[in-house]
Amino acid sequence: MPELPEVETTRLGISPYLLGQKIQRISIHQPRLRWPIPKAVLLLEGTTVQDITRRGKYILMHTSKGTAILHLGMSGSLRIANPSEPKRKHDHVELHINKDTVLRFHDPRRFGCLLWQEAGAPEHSLLANLGPEPLSDVFNTEYLFRASRKRKVAIKLLIMNSQIVVGVGNIYASESLFDAGIRPGVASQRITKLQAQALVEAIKKILQRSIEQGGTTLRDFVNSDGQPGYFQQTLNVYGREGEACNTCGTMIKQKVMGQRSTFYCPSCQR
To answer: Catalytic positions, please?
Structure first.
């Protein structure tokens, strides 16, 4: 699944082509995604894209009439193309910008979504209860330490909880915990303030580095220009079960937590 860095990479990739541009026409080839695409999305036609932001793993396209809410799901991607290029099989939505530019939403598994929030309406229910952005100043040592108190849940599952902090998916949670030297299964309430500080700093560093490198290469993910991300080349633990730790040489272990594969070094992480 595309995680926060992939989504941010996509946002940065499409923004130069869309900001300040008028959406001439929308073509919806497959309206049945994770949720049916609402007819209100057609209000985008004739509007100018004022801003493109991100909230967690959602890309928000702002116009005077409202905001289009895009989620890439398990296998989705956004691609800038020339209208003359043949449409791919799973290009479900097209936003026609001008004679040279079309934005195509590609989603083979159809777990993504395209929803609508009318201007002036209350915040969409998908966004209303999200925690702070991990790269923001709000997500800091004091915040994470307070959030971890009296919680028996494993620290890895805590930082993957989008109501605690958004966008720290499975890969980046494993990598951040390795960087901070914390076992993924440690009860949240047991981490010290120094460990909370180390983990916050690790999350910010790992995510920022990944954004700079274009996101993590996943099976279905390509960034906005159709190329895979490159962060996977520098992973320390994720997907490396049985391989030697880059730091101490101990074999990387794997276990399942919250129905997700978790990787860690039993020597470096305590």
So the answer is: 2-3, 57, 260
